[in-house]
């Protein structure tokens, strides 16, 4: 395939992925906005007013970046996991396998599509948050960079999950038993400085902590960790996950017998 | 001139150590209408799966129009269109979107693909259904949708894996006409697997029979049918006969008052039998083969290879 044909093929996958989550918006775009509104009302307004300040900022302002990031992570991941597993289940993935598209192009198409949903939900949640607080973004470039990188990383994660999954249960195990606990323990609702030293150290092995804090630093200018190192770590994780997905595709794992 | 499909020493051993293909060689000439037949589990789908890259081969070489699928998989796949046995499209997508998305996978811009999609959908009687979700289509329409999808990028080699399974006879015949047309007018090489042997006999020029992962016969349809030593015809009579007529040198049986069966050995002339019947004032109004000729040969060949390999699945 020449470059132009590859771009057409890439856009075909991205377009159909975006069309898919837009078509079923009551399942994809609406629920996060309702859930996050609840978080803002209950944790931000009702409980947050009693907590006061966290790391020198109002509690509502403190949790907004974490909740946006939580939405981006779960939606990027689940979009690719469910869409690619669905195409495996319906065998429509065979259309792609027999086509001249190289593996990296198929992977990139799904990852961009998944990231698009993650970012769309992130924008919706950000818009909802404006009803509860004023966002004054301190570092717009860093904020944009880290949210895109996070969406890409978890989209690739969702793709790997879909490749390895054999039944629908397999694609819900990781979001429920891995992603949700790591996100809640990744400093969405609290600063790790409020934890005893031992648990602070344990928290430092949670990769989501770095994403949430880097994003929070971009918006509020406060962070528990070294932001530069965090951006580098996310980039390394993207490379590792992408390479793993490519390796699995080359071996035809879950696709070819 | 390169063959449309060339397979050399193709071997496939699955993870459970099942030896699905035992080093098969196969050559399908350009422009051919080729039948690949065999019982269940004989290796047909595995062979086609390797060609379409859905199955990883253990050993051997496959090339499409002279292009090795391992060395230049993208260029080889441009020449290939596949209509699988099972429905494998997104059931929630619209008919038109399924075809245009497939075009996109081959790098064909949407606008450019729209004209071709319209032509295919019209030819296959699906144009009125273009805005319907695929799940709303009947079984026959879904099969035609898969044919339209496989042809959107104008492949030179089309693999049809039981394309008329579950399709009613009228529609099946119209699909045969369409396949004949694209083979004759567009020069598309077609490889067909089917369990309607009448379909293979009337459409295909060459044939390979595969059993136990080996090609047990590979020849032209004419040559294969020429191997029949005896054919049996059913004769419909103009008026009833009270008893079975005797014709020296021919086996005749009375099915009922107005039907006879007549068996002709190789070298005998059917005209001689008709002349004898005429002498006995028996008038024949029509005749047909009692059994499908290819089916007879197929059963014989598969049974022959089973004797050396042991029993296998049902005949298809």
Keywords:
heterodimer, A: 257 residues, mainly alpha, 11 helices, 2 strands, B: 316 residues, alpha/beta, Rossmann fold, Alpha-Beta Plaits, 2 domains, 6-stranded mixed β-sheet, 10 helices, disordered C terminus
Structure overview:
The complex is a heterodimer of chains A (257) and B (316). Chain A is an all-alpha fold. Chain A has one domain (3-251). Chain A has helices spanning 3-23, 25-28, 30-51, 59-89, 93-97, 103-129, 140-164, 170-184, 197-203, 207-220, 227-251, and strands at 53-54, 57-58. A two-stranded antiparallel sheet of chain A has the order 1-2. The relative contact order of chain A is 0.14. The model of chain A has no long low-confidence stretch (mean pLDDT 90). By secondary structure, chain B is α/β, with parallel strands linked by helices. Chain B has two domains: 5-225, 3-Layer(aba) Sandwich (Rossmann fold); 229-292, Alpha-L RNA-binding motif (Alpha-Beta Plaits, 2-Layer Sandwich), CATH 3.30.70.1560. Chain B contains ten helices and 14 strands. Chain B has a six-stranded mixed sheet with strand order 6-7-8-3-9-10, sandwiched between helices. Chain B has a four-stranded antiparallel sheet with strand order 2-1-4-5. In chain B, helix 3 packs across helix 4 (110-123). The longest helix of chain B has 17 residues, at 169-185. The A-B interface holds A 1-2, 4-6, 8-9, 11-13, 15-16, 86-87, 90-92, 94-102, 252, 256-257 and B 14, 49, 52-56, 73-75, 77-78, 80, 82, 84, 86-91, 93, 97, 101-102, 104-110, 149.
